[in-house]
Amino acid sequence: MQARIQWQGEVSFRAESGSGHSVVMDGPAELGGLNKGARPMELMLMGMGGCTSFDVMTMLKKSRQQVTRCEAVLDAERADAVPAVFTKIHVHFIVEGVGLNEAHVKRAVSLSAEKYCSASIMLQAGGVEITHDYEIVETPV
What we know:
Layout: E1 3-9, E2 12-17, E3 22-26, H1 40-62, E4 66-78, E5 86-98, H2 102-116, H3 118-125, E6 129-138
Parallel strand pairs: 5-6
Antiparallel strand pairs: 1-2, 2-3, 4-5
C-alpha cells in the first residue's frame, strides 16, 4: 500500500492513494489553513469508520440481511497535551433494513471490533479506548 502527499501551500496538502484516489487536507485558520479539506486526524477517524463499516456490511450481506441503510457515527476524544492523540472513540451504528436479525447485527459489530477492523485494532493497540453500540431501524414496507 502506498500514498503520496504533495504540499499545496501554507498548511494544505493533496494526498493520493496507491489506487489513484485523492483527497485534500488542510489545517485550521490559525495555522494558515483555508479550510479547503479535512484535517489529518479527521481522516484517521473517517478511515476507521470506513474500515469498520466495510466489515459490518460485508458480514451482514453474507448473512443475507436485507440492509437498506447503514451509518456509523463516530465520536472521538483527544488528549489535551501534544501529541493530541485519540484517547477514546465511540462508534454508533444505525442499521436499517427489512426484518433484520439483531443477533446478526450484534455479531457483525462485535467481530469487526474484535477481529477484523485493522484500523480499530491498530488504534486500540496504541492505547485508544474504542467502544461500539448499534441500533436497528425497521424499514417501512
